[in-house]
Design the sequence.
């Protein structure tokens, strides 16, 4: 049998080729991956390879068949969801970490920067007294925060829920506009998805404080333990910010954990024009933010901040393991001098969340802040908020457009109107699909107070002011054509 030969190739040359291919992709001159003319599926499909083709051939396939048929998420006109393409600094940092530090542990520069970047991020987002841990996204970040809330609530009644399980029913209060990951957290934490009590919102998408008070009182009367209140600092639907100060005071008065989901909207605090909306942030017991949303990080980076990180340790410790604890000399007072990165795990993030194996995410946040600083981030946030306001102002003044909710952050919800059309939801749904298929301006849709809305959300580093004007022009053109077709 022929002996297999490992193909390593020239790393520098191959990386250069991939870089050139990605630069070409970033011009966005290619057709969409599912354009009818595309044939990449047939070229890529095949049986499990028995023998390898070598790294050079793999690179060739990447360049010719895979990269050109990638996602439209990074495209400047993509405004569908609260996600975006990574900035150059983020991409370089991710690549560096994947080779130089495949895990975020041990006494390395990467582990040091993991903690340093958490401090920087907390300070930038107005929670500098808190400590944190990175995770893969808002789903896990909320899970970690609510795991701390569960630990706190049950410890107050003499129970260790992480070690011994749950002893009674609880409630988590979250608005009707909360992200569905809150419900999933309830299920995963053993509380039950139905433990999440949905609190009514006003027409601006903000939690009603009086409804919250009623729900808490009802549960107390029923013997249900109020465990946590979840407020939004920028909802996914519309970017609404709940009355954080009022909710925080209710949580404080009733000794209930106060969690703020700022996955998307927390960086909005950098816009001095709306900073007062974040008053009450100082009352939070936990806060999350996703750098892979508005800050331009590679997808897979979120942060959970808590006032007391020891609660995370008690909630998520995996208990000692011989192969781990026996392999290092965890540094304590009186320990020998550290002489090797394997002498210590560094900050034990594996006991602050649900991941043991995890990449170095902090290096990405560090690289982005080192590149443009807080002021660079502030300018980007304000530019995106201005784009939403620009659309809102144009919509207010145009007879064929209707603003469905005043924008708070960088999301604007509006629709095309025509007095002759009875079903405006259907018209705007068709308008949206045509917009997407034109492959230039791609917002999503949502419902606002029962009406279907076009929902551009500006979070990408490549989102610039002219794109708002161009989207509006496309909406008016397509809307006019569709409405005319109905009355030919």
Sequence:
């Amino acid at each position: 049998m022929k002996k297999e030969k490992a193909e390593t190739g020239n790393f520098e040359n191959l990386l250069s080729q991939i870089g050139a291919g990605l630069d070409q992709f970033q011009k966005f001159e290619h057709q969409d991956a599912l354009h009818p003319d595309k044939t990449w599926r047939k070229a890529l499909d095949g049986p499990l390879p028995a023998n390898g083709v070598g790294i050079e051939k793999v690179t060739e396939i990447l360049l010719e068949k895979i990269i050109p048929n990638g996602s439209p998420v990074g495209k400047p006109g993509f405004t569908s969801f609260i996600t975006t393409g990574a900035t150059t600094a983020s991409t370089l940092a991710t690549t560096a970490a994947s080779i130089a530090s495949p895990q975020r542990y041990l006494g390395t520069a990467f582990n040091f920067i993991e903690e340093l970047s958490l401090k920087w991020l907390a300070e930038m987002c107005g929670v500098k007294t808190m400590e944190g841990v990175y995770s893969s996204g808002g789903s896990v970040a909320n899970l970690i925060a609510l795991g701390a809330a569960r630990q706190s609530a049950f410890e107050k009644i003499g129970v260790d829920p992480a070690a011994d399980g749950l002893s009674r029913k609880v409630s988590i209060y979250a608005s009707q506009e909360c992200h569905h990951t809150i419900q999933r957290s309830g299920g995963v934490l053993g509380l039950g998805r139905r433990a999440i009590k949905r609190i009514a919102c006003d027409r601006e998408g903000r939690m009603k404080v009086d409804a919250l008070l009623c729900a808490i009182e009802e549960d107390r009367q029923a013997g249900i333990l109020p465990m946590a209140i979840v407020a939004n600092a920028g909802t996914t639907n519309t970017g609404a910010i709940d009355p954080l100060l009022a909710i925080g005071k209710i949580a404080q008065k009733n000794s209930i954990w106060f969690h703020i989901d700022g996955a998307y909207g927390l960086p909005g605090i950098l816009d001095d024009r709306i900073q007062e909306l974040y008053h009450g942030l100082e009352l939070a017991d936990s806060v999350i933010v996703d750098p892979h949303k508005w800050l331009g990080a590679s997808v897979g980076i979120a942060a959970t901040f808590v006032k007391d990180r020891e609660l995370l340790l008690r909630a998520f410790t995996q208990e000692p393991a011989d192969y781990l604890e026996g392999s290092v000399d965890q540094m304590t007072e009186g320990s020998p001098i550290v002489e090797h990165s394997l002498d210590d795990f560094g900050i034990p993030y594996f006991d602050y969340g649900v991941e043991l194996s995890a990449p170095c995410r902090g290096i990405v946040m560090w690289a982005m802040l080192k590149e443009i600083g807080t002021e660079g981030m502030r300018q980007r946030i304000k530019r995106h908020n201005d784009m939403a306001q620009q659309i809102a102002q144009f919509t207010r003044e145009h007879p064929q457009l209707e603003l469905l909710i005043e924008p708070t952050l960088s999301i604007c919800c509006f629709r095309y109107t025509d007095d002759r059309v009875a079903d405006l939801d259907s018209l705007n749904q068709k308008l949206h699909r045509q917009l997407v298929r034109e492959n230039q301006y791609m917002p999503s849709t949502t419902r606002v107070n029962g009406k279907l809305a076009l929902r551009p959300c500006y979070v990408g580093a490549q989102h610039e002011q002219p794109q708002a004007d161009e989207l509006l022009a496309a909406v008016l053109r397509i809307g006019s054509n569709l409405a005319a077709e109905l009355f030919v």
User: Anything to note?
Assistant: Residues 362-397 form the longest helix (36 residues). The longest strand covers residues 225-232.
